[in-house]
Design goal:
Layout (H helix, E strand, L loop, with lengths): L14 H9 L5 H5 L5 E4 L14 E7 L5 E5 L2 E10 L2 E8 L4 H4 L5 E11 L2 E11 H7 L3 E4 L8 H14 L9 H6 L5 H7 L6 H30 L12 H9 L6 H15 L5 E6 L6 H13 L3 E5 L3 H17 L6 E4 L5 H12 L5 E4 L13 E6 L2 H13 L6 E6 L5 H7 L4 E5 L10 E6 L3 H13 L3 E5 L7 H18 L6 E4 L5 H12 L5 E4 L12 E6 L7 H8 L10 E6 L4 H12 L3 H12 L24 H17 L9 H18 L2
Helix pairs in contact: 7-8, 8-22, 9-11, 10-11, 12-18, 20-21
Bound molecules: adenosine-5'-triphosphate.
Adenosine-5'-triphosphate (ATP) binds next to α11.
Length: 685
């Protein structure tokens, strides 16, 4: 069977399940096989209730004394049961799974396995899995994959599909040259592909993973190098001269650019005027002021009679940039027209926007990746700015580039990576670093507290609001599903409303809301109408409301430090003193050590390097760094050594044999072409 067949070719996967797989990006058998576990469960012996630890995933064996109850609060249904042993009692809670009531029978002994949390002084196990004793024993001491799930698609279904896919898959011909496999002790490809899903122990898992990470970096870096070669020295039809009008805008800003911003801007302008195609990355920590560089570059293009496009990863961000640009332009009498293109606009709105773009009535175009749809026809597109390279992938950037006559490309990144790694990962780009924060910023004051501190935190938020400021509260994460997470945010906001005086306006934001709703809430928060915003991490990137001074993060221990840093970066963006309150439900030593890094420093580079020291190379079980440089398996920090090795090898091989024409590279060439071809095809959607 070809691995390119749809997953619905597997037994037991009908149209409905196929659709659910599609939601997580799995269409073919190949996609399924590279849908890697995000964690592995180990099944330890069940413990007594008294031995349960808060926030840990653990198992207890017990019989139910009476059938479970079905409780309802608002839209949430909860099936609840209580189990007891000599050491204590435990509540079992299943949210929105009413069928669990008939799945567990009173009188029978089961093993329940799930995360234990404490609410109102009681221990609760959330969404426990239920096993018969025999079934559990069969799993004990093994490693079981845990996949990213979506509502309706359970881990069990994915595991079953994976097993089937592995059985029927077409084996891959080994493509990594033997000398590389030997030198780096790489597992054979089919072995790796199987054992990443079903390792029998950690050693096997690491062996399989290492091979796949090696490949992942390898293909990526070949892609980067191809891009570089493709573009290097490319003459540009867009020689964009420095314009007086742009200088005037810069001088009219309510602040002076920092030295680092000036440097970056000079490099950008000199690239744009230089007669060659610009391929530049601007790297700068959160809040360092990258946006204004982008805006000035767009104006430079516009005042040279060309178009410039700014592409960002979310609607909220696109709108924010669009609105703030409009404001800036109006305030300064700038006669340039920005236009917005996002997925949630109505067909009519879109058509109008497309017309303005095609007729060149608009010269600055802001949007999400709706910008690269075929229907958008540009006129003299001379500059493309994407603000997070890896949300889009190298290929999409290329695609947008092809919409003009090789426009200049500027990439923005807030990922604090060391220069050595940046040079490898952004090998196709020149790099400008903004390593200085605007003057007058005060250091954010941090604290790490436990949940008992909440009421004090609310009182603090109230005080800040009374002083005219605003606050974010990032809601506890819920692993079970995005749906529950959304409901959780709604409930949290309700409770917070009660805790705060009526005069404080509290609203919520989560990923499941309609784009229009999200936009409305964000606009109201930006204008100060909403004072406290309860949100999931949708708020993470790029949002700029300088009047917000408090960032309160619930369950801070569940986030990677890079993500915490991004979240915290939403405050401290204005002149006022800002605060970050990290609430941790679990005071374990590791957690405290990690959060202490955040407590000590506001510097993204420092945080990344300290985090790495704590986790150590090859630590794949720690909380994953979550940033823009996301690979499926590889982690640029903990796998930095592999990344460096791969970079050396890719360069050496391609220096010697750019076309991979040697016999020993025959299979490698096939794989590389397939990878690059797939990527472009995928991005052409
Ligand atoms: N030189 C400066 N002096 C004072 N304020 C500045 C300066 N440059 C930018 N700002 C302001 O700082 C805030 C943050 O800037 P910006 O939104 O560009 O950050 P960023 O680098 O894009 O950060 P992030 O990666 O977090 O999105 C904005 O309100 C902006 O107006």
């Amino acid at each position: 069977m070809s691995n390119r067949q749809p997953v619905s070719a597997l037994k037991g996967i009908g149209e409905k399940t196929g659709k659910l797989f599609e939601k997580v990006g799995v269409i073919t058998i190949d996609d399924l096989l590279s849908y890697y576990p995000r964690a592995y469960d180990t099944y330890d012996e069940p413990v007594h209730i008294g031995q349960l630890r808060e926030q840990a995933v653990m198992s207890v064996a017990s019989a139910l004394l009476k059938p479970p109850d079905l409780l309802r609060t608002g839209k949430i249904q909860m099936v609840s049961a209580v189990i007891k042993d000599l050491t204590g009692s435990l509540q079992l809670a299943w949210f929105n799974m009413p069928y669990m009531r008939s799945n567990v029978k009173s009188g029978q002994t089961y093993v329940f396995r799930g995360r234990v949390v404490k609410k109102g002084g009681r221990l609760i196990m959330e969404q426990p899995e239920v096993f018969t004793k025999e079934a559990y024993e069969a799993l004990e001491h093994s490693m079981q994959p845990v996949y990213g799930q979506t509502r309706g698609l359970s881990n069990k279904t994915i595991v079953k599909a994976q097993k089937q896919a592995l059985e029927i898959r077409q084996l891959e011909r080994e493509y990594m040259p033997a000398f590389l496999r030997k030198k780096y002790q790489l597992a054979e490809i089919n072995y790796a592909a199987e054992h990443i899903h079903f390792p029998s122990d950690e050693k096997e898992l690491l062996f399989a993973r290492r091979r796949l990470v090696f490949d992942e970096f390898f293909m990526f870096l070949v892609g980067v190098r191809r891009l570089k070669e493709h573009r290097e020295g490319e003459r540009s039809s867009w020689v964009l001269k420095e314009r007086r009008e742009v200088q005037a805008v810069k001088e009219g800003l309510p602040y002076a650019l920092t030295g680092a911003q000036e440097r970056a801007l000079k490099e950008v302008f000199s690239d744009m005027a230089g007669g060659r195609v610009m391929n530049r990355l601007i790297q700068g920590d959160v809040g360092s002021g990258k946006t204004i560089i982008a805006v000035l570059a767009l104006l430079q293009a516009a005042y040279n009679g060309c178009q410039g496009a700014l592409m960002v990863p979310t609607e909220v961000l696109a709108r924010q940039h669009f609105e703030s640009m409009k404001e800036l332009f109006e305030a300064n009498g700038i006669d340039r027209t920005p236009v917005l293109v996002t997925g949630s606009m109505t067909a009519k709105e879109k058509r109008l926007a497309y017309e303005k773009i095609a007729s060149h009535e608009a010269d600055i175009i802001v949007g999400t990746h709706a910008l690269i749809q075929e229907k958008v026809i540009y006129h003299r597109l001379a500059l493309v700015i994407t603000d997070e390279q890896h949300r889009f992938g190298v290929g999409q950037r290329e695609l947008l580039s092809t919409k003009g006559e090789m426009p200049h490309v500027l990439v923005m990144s807030a990922t604090p990576i060391p220069r050595t790694l940046a040079i490898i990962l952004y090998g196709d780009l020149d790099i400008s670093v903004i390593d200085e924060l605007p003057a007058g910023r005060q250091e954010i004051k941090n604290c790490v507290v436990d949940t008992g501190y909440r009421s004090k935190a609310y009182a603090f938020i109230q005080k800040q609001v009374e002083m005219g400021h605003q606050a974010y509260v990032i809601c506890p994460m819920v692993e079970a599903s995005e749906m529950i997470e959304a409901e959780n945010v709604v409930d949290y906001a309700k409770a917070l409303k009660k805790a705060l005086p009526e005069t404080v306006s509290v609203e919520y934001l989560h990923g499941k809301m309609k784009a229009r709703e999200k936009n409305r809430v964000m606009e109201q928060f930006a204008s100060g109408e909403i004072q406290v915003l309860v949100s999931t991490t949708v708020i993470e990137v790029g949002v700029n409301v300088p009047n917000a001074t408090v960032m309160m993060i619930e369950n801070a221990e569940r986030f990677g430090l890079a993500q915490l840093h991004q979240l915290r970066g939403r405050v401290g963006r204005g002149k006022a003193q800002s605060y970050c309150i990290m609430v941790s439900g679990n005071g374990g030593k590791d957690t405290m050590e990690r959060l202490d890094i955040m407590n000590r420093s506001n510097d993204g580079f420092y945080i990344a390097s300290e985090d790495l020291k704590l986790r150590g190379p090859g630590d794949i079980f720690g909380v994953r760094q979550s940033g823009e440089l996301e690979f499926k398996l590889g982690d640029i920090f903990t796998d930095a050594n592999i990344l460096k090795q791969v970079s050396e090898e890719v360069n050496r091989i391609l220096d010697e044999d750019p076309g991979l024409d040697k016999e020993e590279y025959r299979e490698l060439k096939r794989k590389v072409e397939q990878y690059l071809g797939d990527r472009d095809e995928h991005l052409n959607l």
